[in-house]
Amino acid sequence: MEEKFCKFCGEKIPADAVICTHCGRQVEELKVEQPNIVINNANTNVNQNNLAGGRAKNKWVAFFLCLFLGLIGGHKFYEEKIGMGILYFFTLGLFGIGSLIDLIIILTKPETYYV
Asked: I need a surface site. Which of 27, 42, 69, 91 has the fewest CB within 10 A?
């Protein structure tokens, strides 16, 4: 078995050792070959941003319907929420509070949103 000397402590160690078995220091540089990596990314996916699967609605149409017809549920019928539209119709927009809250919520939505 071939041996060599540690350049830090001077003890005999195996010839193929990278770390001294006595002092624990690294005696040779690690020989690491870099792998040949080829990245071939041909992503052609297009995000439609329609996670809910609904129909696109315009923010400003819903806003003005809520502003002028919110007490009778005009904006809810536009968003195709018929049950809520009927509820708003008979309770005058949940006594006006629901229409006011919906007005604020509609303002925070993006230009085109999905219902």
From this structure: 42
CA distance 98 to 115: 18
Consecutive 10-residue runs of the chain (115 residues): their mean pLDDT? 89 89 87 80 74 81 96 94 95 95 95 87
Q: pTM for the full model?
A: 0.55
97: nearest Cα among 68, 71, 60, 61 = 71
Contact in structure between 85 and 71 (CB atoms under 8 Å): no
H or E element that contains 113: strand 112-114
Instruction: Give the residue extent of every domain in the chain.
Output: 1-31, 56-114
